[in-house]
Structure prediction request, 569 residues.
Amino acid sequence: MLVVTVIILSVISLFIGAIDIKPSDLLDWESLETQIFLISRLPRLFAIILAGAGMGIAGLIMQSLSRNKFVSPTTAGTLDAAKLGIIISMLFFSGMSYIGQIMFSFAFALIGSFIFMQLLERIKFKDAIFVPLIGIMYGNIIGAFSTFLAYEANILQNVDSFFQGSFTLVVSGRYELLYVAVPAIIIAYIYANKFTVAGLGEDFAKNLGLSYRTVLNIGLIIVAVISTTVVLTVGIIPFLGLIVPNLVSLYLGDNLRKTIPHTIFMGAAFLLFCDIISRLIVHPYEIPVNTTVAVIGSAIFLIMLFRGKAYAQK
Amino acid sequence: MIELKGLSKSFGKKTVVENVTLKIQSGAITSFIGPNGAGKSTLLSMVSRLLDADTGEVLLDQSDVKKMKSDAFSKRVAILKQANHLNVRLTVRELVSFGRYPYSKGRLNEEDNQFVDKALAYLNLTDMQDKFLDELSGGQKQRAFISMVIAQDTEYILLDEPLNNLDMKHSVQIMKILRKLVDELGKTVVIVLHDINFASVYSDRIVALKDGRLVKDGPTNEIINSESLREVYDMHIPVQVQDGCRICVYFNSHN
Prediction:
């Protein structure tokens, strides 16, 4: 079902845009349409699928490890920390290579989520809603630093547009970093059982002979890798990491070995759908996908909240 | 056999367990009793390696448990802490299957599946094995957790207040199952209990703690008497014998 949805949405995604491309145009290898198809449409499709699947998995792992349904890279400071890392590397190490910037931002994302997990261990009152609220406050504090730095350096507008989640600028040569998410997702699947056991809590995990700390750290590294690559290539995509794993959990439960494949496809389908809407709503122009994701995502999130405080605390 | 030698543990300045030395008899139910804050749960956590002792050691068949590999240890000793806050959506069968994790790392073979089937049947969970944990009542949930520990197939089963939040019927059910584990399968069960009468009726031996120190350690009928219990609880606890069981009638006690 999900796979079919992804395929249908992919086909739609390939054939909409400012320039009308018909499947028959592709038969001519030299045509402008084929060039656009190869340089813009296909990369865009791959980027959407990778970003959607990746953010879904990152959210799923964070929810499992923090044992809270409302934690995701957007509500745990991970994305804000990655963003801060990029800004600092742009401002203070402007000579730094692209790879250097990536590593810098990755280190920030990793430290950012690690500090959040440490915070979680220290607070006693682990209410389902309270925990993500702390994460959001924590993310905002990091975000305030970023804004301050950007403001001082007079690059506030550049920064805003840089991080605005959008696939408009995704063309061949500018999105390949996202492929790093593929091994990260594969490793996540290999570790699925360990994440599920860790999600039962430290005592459970230790009882079953699992080295809890190691699994926690591997999980955080995967989350940081995915978040960094997505932020650097596409920008910040809110809500996806929050709602997609929750929807899957509703019908499939929390056994990651089962839910990871569904999360990958649903994440991709969700982002494809939002991207298609973004491109159609003011056709032939488009609005940033993170706007669409935020509107649709927050609506779903609100429904989940109203229906689900009981569910989340079960 | 499990031996505790001079175990101590402090949190900050507060000493929670102080110099506890005792032997846990194999093939029996041993209950840890004592007032709130006596250090029962902390002691159990140290025996099961969930907590490191500040001083002293725990010996499992003469070898220091700290030096054992974690998956080797988890095939011999299982611990279940209070788990009623757990909000993970797994089916009963999935949860019980994770009891095989030390053996299978998540890839269950035929033998693992047989252990899971048996563990489910042992706790009458076969019919509800495909239900999610959050659809179960408190008693059923607790049974599912115990079933997981049984699938782990260890000689030693350590349980921290397994009767918490259970009504009388389910408490009795759980205690009868633990009795069966010892009598039929030859397991060794160590359990932290708050209800002294459950300890009295179902355990072979009792270990009483107070302010982190060991006060009493012996066969149940030597401990369940007003004199010994006064030392543990600082109150007068009349003991009556009913159908061969020693029952503490402390509800209306003066001092």
In short: The CA atoms of residues 65 and 163 of chain A lie 27 Å apart.
